[in-house]
Input
Amino acid sequence: MESHRGVVLGQGLPGLARALDWLTTGIELVAVAILLVGLVRFLVGFVAAEAGEAGMPRARRQNAGRILLARYILAALEVFIVADLMATVLTLSLQSLAFLAALVLIRSVISWFLDHEIRAMQHRGENG
Output
């Protein structure tokens, strides 16, 4: 199984490059697991909110679920950035560095908007 990573480091230290490649893949799987746990917890909360009584408490329970999901997404994005950093270190190419910069920018924008929405929902929950 050949990987797209480890091109530069693999030339000098192929064993280390292979180990770091597997570690990077493991970190990516952890990020996916974080997303899946967040999704399951959100769905359980959403179904419980829908099955509960109507009105404002239901809306608050749904917003609490959305806040919870957003926090899991933010955590997963941070873990994905760690994996991307490791992949960039493995390849040490300008292309991978540019790709990493674009990913970090996109993920930072998504994180900012999610954080903004979390704060807005929390503010509405306290004042509503």
